[in-house]
Each structure stands twice: as C-alpha cells, then as structure tokens.
Amino acid sequence: MAIRLMDDSDERLAQVPEPSAFDYSLALAKIGALAFPFLGTGITLFDLVTAPLRNKRFNDWCETLRLRLNELSQKVDGLTPQALATDDAFISAFAQATQAVIRTHQKEKLDALRNAVLNVAVANAPSEDLQRMFLNLVDTFTPMHLEILASIQSRNRATVAHLRNRRDEADQAICELRDRGLINDTRLYTARNRDSPDGLIFFDWDITNLGKQFLDFITSPEMVMS
C-alpha cells in the first residue's frame, strides 16, 4: 500500500490506493518504505488471519491523516508534501505512530496518534525527545487515562463520574498518570496512603506542565493554535 503524490501541479496528497496482499509498506509524501514487525520473514498463521483487519484499520487511519493534512495545508504556509518528505521529525513521528495504530482499535487512541502526527507536521510540537516519549504514552495508555487527564486539566470531575463503578481501573490509571509525571498529588502526605470510600479520581489533582504539553500534543492542531 502506498500514499502517493498527485502530479507536480497539485500540492495535495493523493488518495490512499487499495492495498494488496501483505504489502503494508507506504510512502507518505515520498517518505519511503516502512517495514512493520509482522512482515518479517516468519509470517505466522496469526498474521495471515488478522492481516485484513489490521490492513483496514491502518488504511483508514492513513486516509484520514491525508485528508487532515490537505485541510491544514490551506491554513499553514509551507505545509506541502515536498516539505513533509524532507522533514525528519515528521517522518520519525509518522513511523512511530503507525506502529501504535496497528496495535489498537480504540478511536480515542487513534485520534490522539493522528493529532500528534499533525502537530509535528505543522511544527506545533515539543522537543523530539518528548515527541517520542508522548507517542509511547499514547501507545501504552488506555482511553481512560486520556479522559481522566483531560478532566483534571478542565477541573470537570463530572465528566468522569461514570468511572465511580470502575474504581480499581480508575485508581490504577491515576497512579500511572502520577508516576509518569503528568499530574501532581495535592493531598497532605499524611492522607496519601489512607483508605477512602471514594476513588482517587475524586480527589484534587493538579496537571503538571508535562501533562499540559502531552495533552496539547494529542489535541487537534486547530484547537491548540486557536
């Protein structure tokens, strides 16, 4: 499968053609071939059975990315296929994100990965080291992690009230967000290890500067730049 350029007179990215067999390598703006782990020499029965589903997910994600890049090219000077083809940061982010795309079906994560790549494309992203770290976080986090972090930033606990009956999962997500440095525990030290009838989500937490950068990175560029 490939994402090819249209003729030289057209600055848009062309539609993703239908893939064939196990050829999932692609060239987005002439980036070049990207090899995926499941296309190694030892293709298993699992690969044969699951390839069509993974192929559709990947194809759909790339097609939406193409459309979004074309939209942004009308608003951002210099955002052309030719520029992306020589942008090492974009190429690396795209390659890393596509690996995570293959591993998830969850819309929230697919959207976050797409937004991250778009923010790199429009040079609205943190340092390249943070880009790699943040993409890894999206890959390992669940939609619950993303929802909780956004609710902490907005101070809108009502948006996660439905997690009351999923306390074990929500508490684990809170602890992981804290351990990754995305939120701070504002409780008194003496209260941090006490049992409570309420889940951790209902305590006061502060989003860190790192957490804000992470949310900006996975938010649609238009919203971040507005």
Structural domain tally: 2
Number of strands: 2
**What are the secondary-structure elements, in order, as H or E?**
HHHHHHHEEHH
Strand order of the largest sheet: 1-2
What is the helix fraction of residues, given as a range? 40-55%
How many strands, what sense, and barrel or not for the largest sheet?
2 strands, antiparallel
Q: Total number of helical segments? A: 9
Average pLDDT: 77
Radius of gyration: 20 Å
* Overall geometric form: elongated
Enumerate the spans where pLDDT stays under 50 for 5 or more consecutive residues: 1-9, 16-46
Structural class: mainly alpha
Amount of beta strand:
under 5%
What is the CA–CA distance across the termini? 35 Å
